[in-house]
């Protein structure tokens, strides 16, 4: 999937579209349970001007995950820890991706230097290489 499609998909999943009644039907949780998870910052639904909670598909996924973790015997503190670890892992993966792109640029630079030192034409045009460094 291309980056643009991933971003578009993520935007759609994060759009607050569902009222609490629909979320109750989708998750089999009570309104009280959902409000409790919100109080503990496990979910953060969007609020309308009238202060009505509106949930995204990501919120519903998060609630279903909370429900599964509770059924496995975790308490709220344990669930918070699991979510923190996932957040750290996601941030680490983003950093890892950036580093790998930097590594690729570094290798490309070295190959260009070698090609130039052998008085060979580089395989990439200057404009193409220049875009990689920006």
From TrEMBL:
GO molecular function, one term: DNA binding
Domain HTH merR-type as annotated: residue spans: 17-85
Transcription recorded as keyword: yes
Alphabetical list of Pfam families matching this protein: MerR_1
Segment forming the signal sequence: none
The keyword Flavoprotein appears for this protein: no
InterPro entries listed in its UniProt record: DNA-bd_dom_put_sf, MerR-type_HTH_dom, MerR_fam
The entry's keywords: DNA-binding, Repressor, Transcription, Transcription regulation
Superkingdom, taxonomy of origin: Bacteria
Name of the molecule in the record: MerR family glutamine synthetase transcriptional repressor
Organism: Ureibacillus thermosphaericus
Source organism phylogeny: Bacteria, Bacillati, Bacillota, Bacilli, Bacillales
């Amino acid at each position: 999937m291309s980056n643009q499609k991933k971003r578009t998909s993520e935007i759609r999943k994060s759009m607050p579209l569902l009222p609490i009644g629909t979320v109750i039907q989708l998750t089999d949780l009570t309104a009280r349970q959902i409000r409790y998870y919100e109080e503990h910052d496990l979910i953060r639904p969007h609020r309308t001007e009238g202060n009505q909670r509106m949930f995204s598909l990501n919120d519903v996924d998060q609630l279903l995950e909370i429900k599964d973790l509770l059924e496995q015997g975790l308490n709220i503190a344990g669930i918070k820890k699991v979510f923190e670890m996932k957040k750290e892992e996601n941030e680490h993966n983003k950093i890892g991706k950036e580093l790998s792109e930097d590594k690729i640029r570094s290798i490309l630079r070295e190959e260009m230097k070698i090609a130039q030192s052998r008085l060979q034409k580089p395989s990439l045009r200057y404009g193409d290489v220049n875009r990689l460094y920006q």
